[in-house]
Amino acid sequence: MNGMRQIQMLVLICALGLACAPRMMGQNPQMGPEPQMGPGGPGGPGGPGGGMGMGGPMGQDTPLDPSIKRTYVQVAGGAYLYEPTAPGDKSHLAVLVMHSDGNYMNFSACTELPKRGYRVFCVNRSAPGTLDEAILNLRQAMTYLRKVPGVDKVVLLGHSGGATLMTSYQMIAENGVLSCQGPEKLHKCPNYMAGMPPADGVMLIDSNWGNAEMSLFSVDPAVIDEESGMKVNPDLDLFNPANGFNPKGNSDYSQEFIKKWQSAVGKREQALTQKAVDRLAAIEAGKGKFSDDEPFIVVGISQTSNKLFAQDTKLMSHTAKPRPLLHADESVTTEIVHTVRQPRNMTSTTSSLSRGGEETTVRDFLNNHAIRVTDDFGYGEDSVHGVDWISTYSSPPGNIESISAPMLAMGMTGSWEYLASETIYENAKSKDKTLIFVEGASHMYFTCKQCEKTPGQFGDTQKTTYDYVDGWLSKKGRFFVGGQQ
Question: Does the model's pTM come out above 0.90?
Answer without folding.
Answer: no
